[in-house]
Structure formats: C-alpha cells, structure tokens
Amino acid sequence: MPVAAGIGFFGLLFAALWGVAALVAHNGADTTERLTPAFQEMGRLDSIALTITQGGPIILPDLVGSDRHVVLDHTGDDDLRNWSLHLAHPADRDSSCAIQQIERTRQFTDCDGRTLDVADLAEPPQGVSPIINRKAGTLTLSLRETPATPATTPTS
C-alpha cells in the first residue's frame, strides 16, 4: 500500500506541474512579459556612472534574450547624458563572437583576438535603449524590441 500511495503522490505532483506549465504557456504575449521583462531597473545614475568611470562599461548577460548580452556605457561628466547600449559582440560579427572586457578599461577583445572599443560593438535592435528618469535620477533599460516602421510612399 505505501508504494501505491507514493506512486499516486508523484502522479498528482506531475499533473499539477503539467497544469502550471500549460497555463503559463497558454498565453504567449503574457508569458513573455512575465518571464522576460521589458524593462530592467539599473538604479541611480550617479552610482552607475561612477562604476563605469572606474571600471569601464558594464556587460549585462542576456537581458534582451536570444543570447544577446548587452554593454551599458556612459561617457562624460553629465550623469543625464551620453548613455549608450550596445550588443556584446563586434558589429561585423554575429552573437557567436563573444567579447571579453579588458579589465578596468573601455576596451574588449573578441573571438578573433582583436581589440575593440565600445564604438566597434553592434547596435542593439530598435527600441532597446537606456531610459533616463531625470526627476528620480535613475536609469532603466528598455529591453523590448520595437519593429521598424515601414516607409510609406504616398500614392497619387
């Protein structure tokens, strides 16, 4: 009898987990928002800018999805300006060519051993960008890709 009770318990556990997975997977748009948020709160502008000044741009792992690591950078003395976001691979390569930061610098090495600056990194998809909240003095990253608006030609 204890064996049957054990089998029954694991059967119920499996059914419950299956039900939760089916519920989460049922609504695709909602699921994406819950599992991969569209925004990443980074914190106070001044502390993030100081971190970048002292240690170089920050590599953030896979915030966008599809193995797209991003690099957050800031230049200049004004915490409200000059923020940028790049993908963590060279602009002339795909995401399989990972970069590594040269410690405490603004430079990286890629899969071919080349030394790269932030400007040599790939641009993120449209819509993926830093958002400055001037009033609160905070930085948020928008991670949601927005589709490019197709050009329209007036017809006459």
Question: Can you give me a brief rundown of this structure?
Answer:
This protein is 28% helix and 24% strand.
Helix-strand topology string: HHEHEEEEEEEE
Would you tell me which CATH topology of one domain applies?
Rieske Iron-sulfur Protein
CATH architecture descriptor of one domain: 3-layer Sandwich
Structural class: alpha+beta
Total beta strands: 9
Major β-sheet annotation: 3 strands, antiparallel
Helical fraction equals 25-40%
Please state how the strands of the largest beta sheet are arranged side by side: 1-9-8
Structure, explained:
This protein has 156 residues and is an alpha+beta fold. It has a domain of 104 residues: Rieske Iron-sulfur Protein, CATH 2.102.10. The chain contains three helices and nine strands; from the N terminus they run ααβαββββββββ. It has a three-stranded antiparallel sheet with strand order 1-9-8. A three-stranded antiparallel sheet has the order 2-3-4. Strands 5-6-7 form a three-stranded antiparallel sheet, with no helix packed on it. β8 and β9 form a beta hairpin. The mean pLDDT is 85.
Q: Could you outline the blueprint of secondary structure elements for this entry?
A:
Layout: H1 2-26, H2 28-35, E1 39-44, H3 45-55, E2 58-60, E3 70-74, E4 83-87, E5 100-101, E6 107-109, E7 115-117, E8 129-133, E9 138-142
Antiparallel strand pairs: 1-9, 2-3, 3-4, 5-6, 6-7, 8-9
Name its key features.
156 residues, Rieske Iron-sulfur Protein, three-stranded antiparallel beta sheet
